């Protein structure tokens, strides 16, 4: 299978966007920005691959696409609602909270619309083997990174801790590092563990497992059963044994999905052509990263907690997907 270097794809996306925004703006005032996440996380290259596909077919639609690295899901949802981003990659549970006006969102983000679903994101608790963290409750008294402020993963982890009766004050340290900082912090013994919502295999975790001995901790039990029952955007998941060096057991946890959201104000034709650029060339898109290999047109159009954008619906109806 042909595989394109994802770093190269992202670099090409930025270059292509930079080259064409000025040209297209003169004739077609249509340039869009996708909010992503940390540079070393999966949202940044995911936004990059989407823009790469859109820019590759610019001659058909005249749309220039660029990416912006951001603080993540919560930030992206807020900026879309405020009209400062056209698109953003957002965890499905964060999208739900934003649209419904659930904490940490004080008001309903009524402008949010779904474009399509992406890869599954699994909640992963990565711990130094020497820390002795065998179950979720063992994080008490440990130095644990919960995620950077403004990110979807941090909000999800806080919901998880609350559901399982755990409090931040019970930790020796409740970290707020970005995803691109946690591996070095673990290797430097500045953390005992970190939470990470991610698709597997993850370069972040592979790096940690290469240079030290790690455990992936089960996230399971009655509190998790209750959480999944109350929040249908969470599903139970497993991380296969052998995914990472030294982790020879299957790991139980929960997962959600990454989604592409747009502002309701983005014109129907812009969203239509963005969706068309991906779905008409889905195998090419999937070839850009192993995390996309399981994607199908059907899985990407399953019901999401935020209403569909009319441009996406137009394409889906044409193809018999809705």
Summarize the structure in words:
With 322 residues, the chain is of the alpha/beta class. It folds into two domains: 6-120 and 257-318, 3-Layer(aba) Sandwich (D-Maltodextrin-Binding Protein, domain 2); 121-255, D-Maltodextrin-Binding Protein, domain 2. 38% of the residues lie in helices and 20% in strands. The chain has twelve helices and ten strands. The protein has helices spanning 6-27, 43-56, 58-61, 73-81, 92-100, 152-163, 179-187, 203-211, 222-230, 268-279, 282-286, 310-318; strands spanning 31-35, 64-68, 87-91, 112-128, 143-145, 173-175, 193-198, 214-217, 235-239, 251-263. Strands 1, 2, 3, 4, 5, 6, 7, 8, 9 and 10 form a ten-stranded mixed sheet that branches. Helix 10 crosses helix 12 (310-318). The radius of gyration is 20 Å and the shape is globular. The relative contact order is 0.17.
């Amino acid at each position: 299978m042909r595989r394109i270097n994802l770093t190269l794809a992202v670099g090409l996306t930025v270059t292509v966007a930079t080259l064409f925004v000025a040209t297209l703006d003169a004739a077609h005032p249509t340039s869009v920005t996708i909010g992503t996440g940390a540079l070393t996380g999966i949202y940044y290259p995911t936004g990059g691959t989407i823009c790469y596909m859109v820019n590759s077919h610019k001659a058909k639609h005249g749309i220039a696409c660029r990416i912006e690295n951001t603080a993540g899901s919560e930030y992206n949802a807020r900026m879309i609602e405020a009209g400062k981003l056209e698109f953003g990659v957002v965890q499905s549970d964060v999208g739900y909270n934003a649209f419904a006006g659930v904490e940490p969102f004080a008001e309903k983000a009524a402008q949010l619309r779904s474009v399509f679903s992406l890869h599954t994101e699994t909640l992963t608790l990565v711990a130094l083997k020497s820390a002795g963290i065998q179950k979720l409750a063992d994080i008490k008294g440990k130095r644990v990174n919960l995620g950077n402020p403004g990110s979807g993963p941090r909000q999800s982890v806080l919901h998880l801790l609350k559901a399982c009766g755990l409090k931040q004050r019970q930790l020796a340290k409740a970290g707020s590092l970005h995803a691109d900082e946690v591996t070095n912090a673990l290797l430097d013994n500045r953390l005992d563990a970190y939470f990470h919502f991610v698709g597997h295999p993850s370069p972040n975790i592979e790096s940690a497992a290469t240079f030290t001995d790690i455990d992936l901790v089960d996230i399971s039990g009655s509190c998790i059963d209750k959480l999944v029952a109350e929040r249908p955007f969470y599903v139970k998941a497993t991380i296969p044994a052998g995914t990472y060096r030294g982790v020879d057991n299957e790991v139980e946890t929960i997962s959600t999905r990454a989604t592409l959201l747009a502002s309701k104000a983005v014109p129907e034709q812009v969203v239509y052509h963005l969706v068309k650029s991906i779905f008409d060339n889905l195998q090419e898109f999937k070839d850009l990263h192993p995390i996309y290999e399981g994607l199908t047109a059907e899985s990407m159009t399953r019901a999401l907690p935020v209403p569909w954008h009319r441009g996406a619906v137009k394409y889906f109806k044409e193809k018999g997907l809705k």
